[in-house]
Amino acid sequence: MSQSQQVVLAVNNQRLVRNLRYSFTRKETLIAELMQNARRAGATQVSILYDVPSQILTVEDNGCGIRDFQRMLTVAESGWDEATKAEEHPFGMGFFSALFNACRVEISSLGKQMDFVTADALAFETLEVQEADEYIRGARIRLIGLSMSESQIAGAVKRYAMGFPIPVSYNGQQQSRPHALDQGDFQPCSIGQVHLTRSASYTVYLQGIQVHRSNHYLHFGKAIDTIIHLDNTFRGRMPDRDSLVDEPMAIERIRFCLKELWVRLLTEDKAQMSAQDFTSLYWRLARSWGLSDVFTDVPYLPAASLFCISETPHTVMEDEEYLTHQEQGVSQEQVLNGDVVLCDHLPDDEDDHHWPAATLADLSGWKVVRHIPVGHWSEAHTLSLASLKVSVDFERLSTFRFNGERVWCDVILCDSYTLRSGKHQVEVRNQAVFLESRELLIPSGSVGVEALRQVSTYAEYDDKSSLDDNALQADTKLLSDRVLAEFANLRGEGQADTLAKVLEAGNLAAFSVLKDCAFIVRLDAQLRPNVLELSEQQFQDVNQLVDGLMTASIAQ
């Protein structure tokens, strides 16, 4: 019959303490821990000094002092009073960060002192507490042989002082505490104390130390982050306290509270401010907090919601647009009176077909609306370009086939064309447009190149986010030359310039053997060339013949 075995939880003390060094996220944590100890001791200030040559860090406060030195070196046992334990839940581990980052430690408080090598403490050697030569009313801790640079220490002190509740000095210089509770206008709320600013970003503090900052950093005007000091229903993650326990749930709770505060403020200001001032001040901010529905009945559209078409509409690459922000907002009255026309759903891809509608909007000065909440009054007065019926009227002058590097389509030349949709109409002479019939319509005041990117995105084949500028430039030159030649032909002008451009485009400069040669070239109906080379004498004879013909023509 086998004997039963009983087990009980046990701890390898030396290995546990040795492995504690790996639980701290960063060395700078010890600065925060020493500052926190001063605050918990009731200090009204904490002084931090660092001597670079000796690598000695001194932290001194005017708090209640240390009555039991053993508590500082006892893992998971806090030496604070019961009220502090109940309110702040100290872990009793913070001072150990000092043992892992210094060679020697000196502690002086209330007439007692302890001076020891950290390796001895970590090896569980017995350490002596002695009478001190100097009576320190609070506590003075010196870390000797610190394994941190001066810039690390200075940066840590500056960072940890930002929201710290008591003054902090470093090498005699008072540190800025712009986020501290005594430095701003804070209001109580369900999560602690909040200083609300016109920002979608927020910085969160627990017991004076930053534990979170939102990651979008979106400010409006000169506003800084909203500052939050959490109450002690939140817990910092052991041992650093530089982040929150159950952080996703904690952040959800924080954002819910902030959203409630914004709803209250927006409701109050909506009732007191003019429509223009209210929307101009809060539109982007409310949208960042998902509160845009507060504007559904406000009779004003701010500039932040309006855009102008600033280029010929075209397909767009990643992070590319042909819009610019409107400088001024518009009132509901302007829209209802027809002084301002609103539109949306612009084409931006080569599969889109409503380029005539976009051209009508562009040349008519319509305003593009974006980020409008569902149910907003402007929805009933906004034209969707994707479904807008637009007629294109023109008299065809000529048609030819264009085969470029990225664009292959039929081209229609006209003197001008007219775009019509309901009461809206515009005559166009200087801007081409790609029709739903997949034809490129070019009026006499244009060579059509501005509409090439309505036909193709010109994206690189191996990188759809990059523009193939070489292909675009090649098609631009070819289309420009071709259109100029076609219009010249329609006007009955000669094509000598056209031939010269064609020869130039054919890399004529690469054939040096053709230097000083003369030719007569005739193109047949299929544009096949018949070429006759002339000798120098023949060339002179032809010139004399041409001069004679021109003289006779002038005489007539």
Automatic annotation (TrEMBL):
It comes from the Bacteria. InterPro entries: HATPase_C_sf. One of its GO terms (molecular function) is kinase activity. The keyword Kinase applies. Keywords: Kinase, Transferase. Pfam families: HATPase_c_3. This is Histidine kinase/DNA gyrase B/HSP90-like ATPase. It comes from Fluviicoccus keumensis.
